[in-house]
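If you are new to this repository, start here. Below is one unmodified record pulled from the training split, so you can see the exact layout before writing a loader.
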Amino acid sequence: MGKIKVAVLGSTGMVGQRYVKLLESHPWFEITALSASKASVGKKYGEAAKWVIEGEMPESVRDMRIVSADINDVKKEGTELVFSALPSEVAHEIELNMAEAGYMVIADTSAHRMDYDVPLIIPEVNSDHLSAIFEQRKRRKGIIVTSPNCTTIGLAISLKPILDNFGIKRVLVSTMQALSGAGYSGVPSMAILDNLIPYIKNEEEKVVRELLKILGKYENGFIPANIKVGASCHRVCVLDGHTEAVFIETIDKATSNEIKECMKKFKGDPQHLSLPTAPINPIIVREELDRPQPRLDRLAGEPERARGMAVVVGRIREEQALDNGIKYVLLSHNTIRGAAGNAILIAELLKAKNII
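And here is the target side for that same chain:
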């Protein structure tokens, strides 16, 4: 059986480049269409994309011509599946048009994350939410599946085994987010050098509402988790890797050692272990007092294709200021696990479930 032909919308941006890199030599998917802004249409990808991530641009895409995000242009390339890393201001309409034309759209953008029939998926955490797509198919030919905000993904993965084993009443998180989360030109160098920025527009609101949807249930509609969530989000002078300080109150009392053990044992749906991009251990627990650190831990994950897909957790401690309190620090790679990698893992899950 041949590989599934995929298009990447917004292919020249930082997340778009992650898609291109991660899809290189993928066993199940093959890039056949790359889309970008009108100014890039018709140019070779190697000319249109200013390559800004580590490693070389894959030779297989250098001479591919950029097409528009028009349905007919994408269709000419034989596209079967669409990955969207579009700018938020254009994503809503284009993704919807693609789905209505019959395409399966997996979107990194926030445009449809909170739609009533669009699942917001982290494969190890809430693959059962994919049942929402059957509601979508009642009103359009194709479907939209969304990947969460980069900050939310690492947090939700770390919380899932705790929720399943002990229950959670309250989550408080303070984030230290990498510059790549804002895009290559998102934060001017003079604004961030010798500095941090204690505000990221709309980020705290996204973390709260997305986390509650992900950790909730789907029963003929999404039922948010009954958890109180508070977030404070900050931009720091780190290239890749979001670090988060997490404070939680569990329903059933748990020791720090019990939290460590449930995180170490966490696998999610066993089916995910056969997916090419799935990390063998979604959560890696570090015992050192000074880990995780972005430079040392952002590319954690095995096998090789899953590098950057694991969430690294350390400094797991009991917190006396909270009832049944636990606190820890987590790190996740924001453009791999938090963006393109999670979306590709969703696509692998859909294929494994014979949805595509």
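Two things worth knowing about this chain: The domain at 4-149+340-352 is CATH 3.40.50.720 (Rossmann fold). The longest strand covers residues 168-177.
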